[in-house]
Design brief:
208 residues; 6-stranded mixed beta sheet; alpha/beta
Length: 208
Amino acid sequence: MLIVRQYAVGPFQSNAYLVWDTAPGEALLVDAGAEAPRLLRELEEHDLELTAILQTHAHADHIAALPEIVAATGAPVYLHPDARPMLMNAEENLSAFAGIPITAPVETLAVTEADELNLLGRKIQIYHTPGHAPGSVCYHFVDDGVVFTGDALFAGSIGRTDFPGGSYDLLIDGIKKKLLVLPDETDVYSGHMGPTTIGHERETNPFL
């Protein structure tokens, strides 16, 4: 059984998720947004070994904890190549404009639309959904009916597209062609706010 724990972290209350199975004691982290000591403590308390970090994108509020968590665990980081420049540049990841420049110069493994990961013994499909930020991706745990959408799709909303590199048309196109085609019962875990389902967003989301 897949277990998903949501943690709202940092000043922007971005969601970080620890994901694990009841059997092997291995875990994944989706978006290392902030509060590294808290997330590392959760791993220790649940007796989990972090085996990968899945980054949906690389805005500052989703990467601030990356250096510390990678240093502590050695976990590989999966990220779309178009998002990598934001790890190195506080202006591109928007933290410079907030007066809290953040960089996360860690090594990454490239994931693209054509890729399919096998982690926790599960098939994870990658969907490239730019529009909120370059290189934004979603991670679909196919057999579990779970998708992590980052800042592409929220409960009742969508990601902002007025940031540098944003595109409303690209975002809507990606959501409709890659996310809304998933089964209604698919659980959606977003980069902010609470969970929802694909069916609920298809029926009620005013942006769609």
